[in-house]
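Q: Entry one of two.
A:
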Amino acid sequence: MNQFGHNFRLTLWGESHGAQIGVSMDGVPAGIPLSEADFAKDLARRRSGAP
């Protein structure tokens, strides 16, 4: 698991040998447009078998 930030906290997580990966966000101000595509590159690094 990688965690970044204090007021706006972003956590990337993934199973070591499984298919589950995800992003948890805390403190995101209202009105900021975010999508899965914004985190695709970071999530790909957490995917099982990633370099």
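Q: Entry two of two.
A:
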Amino acid sequence: METRALKNPYPDYDGSPACTLALFDSQGKLTPQFAQRLSSKITELLAIMENGLRSADPRDCTSYTGWTGIALLYLHLHSVFGEPSFLLKAHDYVSRSLRCLTRRHDVTFLCGDAGPLAVAVVVHHRLQRVQEADEYLNRLLQFHLMVVKGSGGLPDELLYGRMGYLYSLVFINQQLGERIPLQYIQQICEAVLGSGENLSKRFGVRDQSPLMYEWHQEQYVGAAHGLSGIYYYLMQPGFLAAGAERVPSLVKPSVDYVCRLRLHSGNYPPCIGDDRDLLVHWCHGAPGVIYMLLQAYKTFGVPQYMEEALWCGELVWRFGLLKKGYGLCHGAAGNAYTFLALYRQTHDLKHLYRACMFADWCMNYGAHGCRTPDTPFSLFEGMAGTIYFLTDLLQPMKSKFPAFEV
């Protein structure tokens, strides 16, 4: 495989207590020393990020590269540390976002107006400003009919499509309990299912994959624009109204089709028909596909899905420290979530150890000659995402890839 990774300098987990003594105990509880090192680095990087954000684009409201992503980070820091100043920071940044919404048809959590509105709902709810929280929720729900109908050529994927709006609703329910009725989520999933059936029929691939999706005329495979990200949501319990029969009959064979695309290395191609084995990113490649595999294992109990997920872990361990940097979308922090997902599923300390090693790499931020991203302090490309990961590592069993995992 051609690689865009730097050589992994860390010894792998050998199963001995000595290997993990400085990191965590036999139950996976972080040692006070390692937890303190993470916390200190979080504080240090936050100060650097705050300074760097002074020159950020004042008009970028998005979660992906803009102010909402920073608000989401502070909301997470507030959840983990309980520090009131973090919640006020989240309010400050989401308020900036609300002043510069795209006001276009961008309706997703990561790249559109749904992200700022959804984060605003949660921030105002935590501040006990009920009226404002309700107002932002109503504004968010005004997009619902347009999303279900797919007007304006809305795609189905996560970054710019229906699943990106769906995540906004899921995010609010995760944070505040079932505020949004499940039928809102089910209606979107029904529309995505219908869209996938139509495209599969149009391409004449129904026998191989009853569902098919494309973005900009390409059938992407990864989590951000592709099949695996869509199937991850369609397999969530209750997301399809009559899921009992259609998840096995439509989603499972489509997941199996993605599994057959796996490359010799254990990685997945960026698109159907493009077998270049280059990208080991959350957005394209095994680090994003793993969430579909683990959800398929939970849903159907087929050992093959777990085996393939473990292969993803092996690949990320070898090729996951990227020249592109330390971010979530295509960097070491995003790849490290692969290990946290495997750890939550298996409780195998090997995966927690590997996450800690990637954290060590991220804590040496800037020392590896990596590329500087276009938005160096943002949530999905830059430092904010790294801080988010280091914070999640403090509570590994509660960790979730931000703006994506249910």
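A: Comment on entry two: The chain has a mean pLDDT of 96. The two ends are 32 Å apart (CA to CA).
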